[in-house]
Amino acid sequence: MKWSAFAPVLTAGILISGCVFHRHQTPPLPPAPAAATVIVTPDTSLAGKVVSYDDVGRFVVLQFPTGRMPAVGQTLFLYRAGLKVAQVKISGPQQEDRIVADVVKGSAQPGDEVRDQ
User: Residue 64's domain is classified under what CATH number?
Assistant: First the structure.
């Protein structure tokens, strides 16, 4: 009689333990799509700032990073708060990281950003 009462408990234990040890296989993940080719190009544009402005002579003194000076005769543009405010033409002379440019169109003030585009 004791064996007949223990049999259902033993059978239930075997069935439950079988479910615990039977692991379901997860399907493999699909391969990731090929990554887009990223092209990295260095920024070679000129960028500097207006150090001073002479309203009477209509010229500016521009400062550029060391080793990145514009050529004499090159046309550049001045920006203030992101808006184009003037066009300048490099005339020289150059001294260290500063160079003089004539104001062709517009007006300038110290602190304006100068770029070649």
Answer: 2.40.10.170
Could you tell me the CA-to-CA distances from 59 to 30, 68, 69, 87, 94 in Å, in that order? 64, 20, 17, 11, 13
* Phi, psi angles (nearest 5°) of residue 31: -65, 145
Query: Looking at the domain assignment, is residue 105 inside a domain?
Result: yes
Domain count, the chain: 1
Q: What is the pTM of this model?
A: 0.63
Decide if 24 is inside a domain: no
Residue 58, both tokens: 């209509």
pLDDT in tens, 60-88: 999 999 888 999 999 999 999 999 999 99
